[in-house]
Amino acid sequence: MTGTLTIAGLGPGSDALVTPEVTAALAAATDILGYAPYVTRVPPRAGLKLHSSDNREELQRASEALRLASEGGKVVVVSSGDPGVFAMASAVFEALEQAPQWQNISIRVLPGITAMLAAAARVGAPLGHDFCAINLSDNLKPWAVIEKRLRLAAEADFSIAMYNPRSASRPEGFGRALALLKDAGCGERLVIFARAISAADERIETVTLNEARPEMADMRTLVIVGNSQTRRVGRWVYAPRQVR
Ligand SMILES: C[S@@+](CC[C@H](N)C(=O)[O-])C[C@H]1O[C@@H](n2cnc3c(N)ncnc32)[C@H](O)[C@@H]1O
User: Fold this and answer.
1) What sections of the protein cross the membrane (predicted)?
2) Separation of 54 CA from ligand 1 center, angstroms?
């Protein structure tokens, strides 16, 4: 078996934030698989097949990537940001678990800059102390689990990075998450809405949780809720290194 499977993170959007090792893997690939908006970020060239699919087809895409690699392809599965953060790396390993015949394929996971780090860097250092990341999509977990994790994160005074905050098919959840955090006494905490980070239409807004409205987020937004110490200094937002 001579094929390889690389799972690569394309970063948040700008070409300047794609790592050199990901660029090299894309240049050597015979096949690129991924959600259509991510595959379109890879320029077409002779000898390269681009396989776009819907964002609900991760497991199917992962199996297809393994099959192509088993047939000798230099296959790259692309994700935005980092492939291990709410993205394709887990889906590939899930598919591998179900398919022992592919377990000898050479696999590499190449990291990328995840949205919460790109967003944090734009505003200062809001993840400078203990933090957690929560995916607000309830496609793959019950909403009750999301609520429990938010409640405990608030109680533990973590800064909270929220991925997938709000979509057309899930318009209600983010408002419920904001209400839960307000009820948990976080109303005065700073909340950063970081939309389309590093893309041409990037937009960043920082308000208190009491001022935050669900419509301020969509599926291209990464939301960071500060901890109780997170504060502004001039135009910047940061979490102090010391907890009192
Ligand atoms: C399916 S998750 C993929 C996360 C990705 N693997 C990462 O590491 O950033 C998609 C979510 O990531 C966030 N996201 C991805 N790119 C972003 C960007 N450029 N600006 C703001 N948020 C982004 C949004 O919350 C979006 O709903």
Assistant:
1) none
2) 16
